[in-house]
Amino acid sequence: MNIESQTGVNQSNQHRQPAVWVVIAAYNEESRLQETLSGLCNEDWHIIVVDDGSTDATFQNAQAFPVWILQHPINCGQGAALKTGIDFALQQGAEVIVTFDADGQHAACEIPDLVNPVLKGDVEVALGSRFLGVAKDIPWLRQLTLKLAILFTRLTSGLKLTDVHNGFRAFSRQAAETIQIRQPRMAHASEILDEIARLGIKYVEVPVTITYRTETLEKGQSSLGALKITGHLLAGRIWK
């Protein structure tokens, strides 16, 4: 995979400790990325934006912030973008890696609570749960789809989770090195959970807030898309 990279880190951020790195996969998020990065850049994190072949001004908007920017020349999918960002963070010496959506659904102020059990060494992975926390303005069909996905995950992986397909997660360095992301698109979310179950990785769910907006729902995953993800995941299992 051909990847172009650019560092947008200014001198004022060089003092930051390399413990926590935040990875954002962004595809055509020019209208939402600025708000997302504004919230994150007020905190003491290293931030990586992976521009996944965007055709809008996502890359240019990211350049206005003190972040690392990696660029896919073509759209490869969210799973592939996260893998690119995670691999880069590991190369930079990251101790904890957080995955964070570009579209403004997550709250940057909740990162400390998410990473705390990983930093303390209690678990290797912390998974955000909107159903232990808050799912603001969640459509009923989306909630039903997620509940069915939770049941599917429990049946296939044995993990007794309250939420799945939540992009707000934290990995220890060891977990990030061990978990293999092979699914390039949205099925990677289920693949990560399968890897946690397969490898016996210790995890915890942490209450988080997900805010649903009309524009993100229009761009995001539909119920039909969820069925396609399930198909991709099952195909991946058969391929193994």
UniProtKB/TrEMBL annotation:
GO molecular function per UniProt: undecaprenyl-phosphate mannosyltransferase activity
SUPFAM superfamilies reported in the protein's UniProt record: Nucleotide-diphospho-sugar transferases (SSF53448)
EC number: 2.4.1.54
Domain Glycosyltransferase 2-like: 22-178
UniProt-listed InterPro entries: Glyco_trans_2-like, Glycosyltransferase_2, Nucleotide-diphossugar_trans
UniProt keyword list: Glycosyltransferase, Transferase
Enzyme class: transferase
Name used for this protein in its record: Undecaprenyl-phosphate mannosyltransferase
